[in-house]
Amino acid sequence: MKVLQHLSYANVASTLALVVAVGGGGVALAATLPNNSVGSAQVKNNSLIGADIKDNTLTGADVKDSSLTGTDIKNGSLTGSDVKSRSLNGSKIALNTITSKNLSSAPHGFVRGYVWNDQPSSPVGTTVAIGSGYAFNSSGGPITSVRNGTGNYTVTFAGLNFYPGNVQVSGYGTYGLRCNVGSWGTSVVNVLCSNAAGAPTDSYFSLAVIK
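Now predict its structure.
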């Protein structure tokens, strides 16, 4: 009873203030911080972890250029839509990491087939298989060539659809020699070769299918 007699409003108020100052000051301080008032200067380096960041709140603008490496990205978490068009080159892709499963039917600008014609003087009208080490067909089919006449060849990449794509041909060997694409279709290329004077001539040549 004597204790109650000595209690006053001032005693109670000062005691509550002490409790808040010691035990709840952090809560009171946080409650008084205005929105967007905490920036990088107020955050200790390396003190934030993933749990401190709300999902889907970061964008590319929040990440410093060239600051991320492969170790910062979870395996299998990126898709094609996460990568800017034409932003990757060979130096950013590890050897032997891309397979046919990584390529869609849409254009990518990869070489889908190539060949070095090592039989420039084969019998006219005869289909010959080109199986040198400088030949590739991404469809897995054979590559054949037919000499239609002097300097005129038809090369077929069995099973490979060139569309939508492009075909490049260049002569190989004699100075002044020129080989060009006469025409091309779904899996067939007509190649025309001529000498420096423009006359048709049999020739070695290299050919690439790009799509």
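Helices lie at 2-6, 9-23, 25-32.
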